[in-house]
Amino acid sequence: MADKDFPAGERITLYGVYRCSCGAQEFFGVSGRRFPRQHCQSGTWRMVQRAREEKFF
Question: Residue 16: which of 56, 48, 45 has the closest Cα?
Answer without folding.
Answer: 48
